[in-house]
Amino acid sequence: MIDLHSHTTASDGSLSPGELVSLAKELGITHLAVTDHDTVAGLPEAMREAERLGITLIPGIEIEIAYAKGAFHLLGLGIYDYHHTMELLIDQAQAERTRRNLRIVKRMNAAGIPGDYGSIQAQTQGTVIGRPHFAQYLVQKGWAKTVQDAFDRFLGQGKPLFEPRQGIDLAAGIQAIHMAGGKAIIAHPLSLHLNWSPLKRSLQEWKELGLDGIEAYHSRMSSRDSGKVLRIARELGLLVSGGSDFHTPDDPLRRLGFTSLENKRVPPELAAPFMVPML
C-alpha cells in the first residue's frame, strides 16, 4: 500500500509526523508522502521514524496557488533537496496565510464571536494555522457542533467568516519544487471547478510552465472521475499521483492508504516517479 498525500500537526493534521508514520506502518503502507500545507517542518521527524520502521518516506509539500475560480493546490512530491531551496516560497506562503488569518479574526469579532489570534495559535502544535484550526476553536467555544458544521455555517466560501487567500504564483511554485528535486503535481483537481474540456486546456497551458502531473486518485473523487482525469493525464503525457489527503483518523472519508469515494487503495505503482534517484 502507498499514500502520496497526507498531513500532520506541522499543518492541519491531528497526528504528529512520527505518529502518522507509525499509523502507516500499522496499516501496511510501504511508501508514504508527507505533504503539509506551506511547510516542511514535519519532514525531519517523519523521515527519522520512517527509517526506523522501514517505510519509504517521500518528502513533500502542498502549496496554495493564486487562482480565482476555485482552490488550486500544488503538491511537491519528492522534494529531497528541500533544505534552503524552498525557504523563500514557504516564507511568502506563510506570511499570506497569517494575513488571511488576521482578517478572519476581525470577521469573527465583528460577528460577535470573542477571541484573538493568540487563542487560535494556542490550540495548535504546528507552525501553520489554517481554517481547520478556526473550525476547532468554534467547536470548543460552542459556536459549532462539529468541524464540518463550522465550515458549513461560518468558514466555507460565502459564509460570514470566509476570507479569500492570495496564493503563490504557479510558475514560482513549480520552480521552487523543481529546485528541490521534486515533481509539481496538481492536487484534487475537481477543486479547480473546471469542466473536463477547460481542465484539459488549462493543464496543457500549465504543462508549458513546467507542471509535471496531476492527482488522479483522491479520497473525495469517484472512480468515474478518477478515470476521466487519468485519461486526460495520459493524453497530455502528465504524471499521475494519488492519495487519501489524510488529516485525522476521525475522518472516515479520508482513510490513510485509500482513495476515491469507494475507498479503493491507491495504486502502488504511482510511487515510482517520486522516489529518490538512484546514483
Automatic annotation (TrEMBL):
It comes from the Bacteria. Residues 2-67 form the Polymerase/histidinol phosphatase N-terminal domain. InterPro entries: PHP_dom, PHP_domain, Pol/His_phosphatase_N, Pol/histidinol_Pase-like. It holds the Pfam family PHP. GO terms for molecular function: 5'-3' DNA exonuclease activity; 5'-3' RNA exonuclease activity. This is Polymerase/histidinol phosphatase N-terminal domain-containing protein. It comes from Spirochaeta lutea.
